[in-house]
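User: Hey, quick favor. My workstation is busy. Could you predict this chain's structure for me?
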Amino acid sequence: MSRRRRRGGLVPVLLVLAALVVLGVARESWLREALGLPEAGTPSVTVPRAEPAVVEGPFAVVRVVDGDTLVILRPEGETKVRVLGIDTAETVDPRRPVQCFGPEASARATELLAGTQVTVRGDPLQDRVDRYGRELDYVWLPDGLLFNQVMVEEGFAVEATFDGPYEMQTVLRDAQDRAAAAGLGLWSPATCGGDITQPVG
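Assistant: No problem, here it is.
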């Protein structure tokens, strides 16, 4: 009889533990949905696979600096890449405070890029290197999705035109319009309301 009682006592405990796990997952999903964030590890399904025929790489991602900057390993050595056509809030500039949605953008970039190999391509309408010596590139993820567009489409970055029109300007502006209309990420009133220049807190 004592063995049966012990077994019977374990069932409610296991049911309670299972319920707590389900509640924890549901809470995280609810929080991501409330902020307009995608589920962890899943790029936006609206972003088309659009890898061009002529790209360089694949190159290993050495590290992610922030939401719009990474370091890749070329045969000649490490190269810092500034992602073309997008801008994310500052997190590492010592002259500025951490800006709204910057940590989230960095985390998403790390989630998508860390430990992967990417292909890159410059823009024929832009210089290949900026004034800081960073290579200016479009960056494709291993699954063929354009990283630049994923970050804008999901509301982690804004479209940015620095030195005149560029090849994928319309693509990124359309992605931004969709993210803003849906209130995703940095466009949500609960986060930045579209203004990433404001400091965190």
